[in-house]
Write a structure and sequence with these properties.
The protein has 396 residues and is an alpha/beta fold. The chain has 2 domains: 131 residues, Alpha-Beta Complex (Aspartate Aminotransferase, domain 1); 232 residues, Aspartate Aminotransferase, domain 2. Helix 5 packs across helix 6 and helix 5 crosses helix 10. The longest helix has 25 residues. It is globular. The protein starts with 20 loop residues before the first helix and ends with a helix.
Length: 396
């Protein structure tokens, strides 16, 4: 009998993800039970020993009605809760301009479908978290990068953005504050961005999941959200994963802003798209108010953790390691001596010191050598890891 063989899988999945030597070494050490200081964890359910599992269980246990209400944009009651959450943060948006999704990643996929035809392009920031290329390719959309540059603080390189725009560019993605740079969009940058988008007839997608985690009060003209900047059609993304420290709850949202006719048209088409996916899970919508209330406590704990670990970076003062300035978010970028490549740095840290970090190239940093740490790491592990990193750097 002939052996069945599929002709091919979709070209949208043609990226290669082979295990590299570092990942193999890390897996080997974990299997061997070697004690490791993992300075990359970004999962609040693991990072906090007192995570409120019981309180979350009670929130779900209190739901008496599991009736399915298939509203494409999400139940109005849940969208009103999201609008009220924004109001608590001084941002005005109505429930009518909010659409619920299962996650921020799903929101990206929906928006790429909304804005792009196959072969169209979106602009994405560099450096940034390595997610956009995969999500875009899954929608048969291409990505082009614009640069964030650093001169003691981070700023948008608008020359690179203008150069990246083509006749097929449909949207500009910004992450505000950026991951991993922690940089917020500035007021003047937002105005320039709006003029550029208007000139080329393109939309803005603003990933604002770290919005509620500034490193300090926003007094230097930073923009927390594109909501309220209504010159250009924009989509602001957020969700329970970071806003409430609940990645396991799988609820995100899109807030739509811009000229009224553009907003109305976008919402009509979003409703059609989301209707094909059916509504997000009913239980999480019913529990949303209580989850956000519990999440406010988690957010407070995360903010305290971020402050403590940022302060711990001062231990690097008398070393050749330079922490880059960040204005928010959960990450810290450290510039390490370029006597080694980033690959050599992360491998030597693992083998000699038992410390796990991420290399700058993971985020497409423009040059070497940098390592990236998670600021929600347990403080004792974070401080010990910094000392080991400093010790290795002083031996260079």
């Amino acid at each position: 009998m002939p052996i069945y063989s599929l002709k091919r899988f979709s070209e949208r999945l043609a990226w290669s993800t082979p295990a590299n030597p570092y990942s193999l070494l890390l897996e080997q050490k974990r299997r061997a039970g070697v004690r490791l200081l993992d300075l990359t964890t970004a999962n609040p359910t693991e990072a906090f020993a007192d995570y409120p599992h019981t309180e979350i269980a009670r929130a779900y246990g209190a739901i008496a009605n599991f009736r399915y209400e298939p509203e494409p944009l999400g139940m109005r009651s849940a969208r009103q809760i999201v609008a009220a959450w924004y109001a608590q943060h001084g941002i005005s948006v109505t429930a009518d301009r909010i659409a619920l999704t299962a996650s921020t990643s799903e929101a990206y996929s929906i928006l790429f479908k909304l804005l792009c035809d196959p072969g169209d392009e979106i602009l994405v920031p560099c450096p940034s978290y390595p997610l956009f290329e995969y999500l875009a390719r899954a929608e048969s959309v291409k990505t082009a990068q614009y640069q964030l540059d650093y001169d003691g603080s981070w700023f948008v390189n608008f020359a690179s953005m203008q150069k990246a725009i083509s006749g097929r560019t449909k949207a500009i993605v910004l992450v505000n504050p950026n991951n991993p740079t922690g940089s917020f969009l500035k007021v003047q940058e937002a105005k320039k961005l709006a003029r550029l988008a208007e000139k080329h007839g393109i939309a803005l997608i603003s990933d604002e999941v770290f919005m509620t985690y500034p490193a300090a009060d926003l007094v230097n003209g930073q923009v927390r959200s594109l909501i309220g900047h209504d010159e250009i059609l924009s989509f602001s993304l957020n969700g329970l994963s970071k806003a409430a420290g609940m990645p396991q709850m799988k609820l995100g949202w899109i807030a739509v802003d811009g000229p009224p006719t553009e907003v109305a048209s976008a919402l009509t088409k979003l409703e059609l798209l989301l209707d094909n996916y059916l509504s997000v899970a009913t239980p999480v919508q019913y529990a949303l108010g209580e989850l956000l209330a519990i999440g406010a406590g988690i957010q407070t704990k995360i903010a305290a953790r971020l402050r403590e670990n940022r302060e711990a970076l001062s231990a690097l003062k008398d070393s050749p390691i330079e922490p880059l300035t960040g204005e928010g978010g959960w990450s810290a970028i450290l510039q390490v001596p370029s006597v080694r490549t980033e690959e050599d740095w992360i491998s030597k840290l693992l083998t000699d010191e038992g410390v796990v970090v991420q290399p700058g190239y993971f985020y497409d940093m423009a040059k070497e050598a940098f390592v990236v740490l998670s600021l929600i790491t347990r403080p004792t592990d974070f401080a010990e890891g910094l000392q080991k990193l400093k010790h290795l750097a002083l031996r260079c």
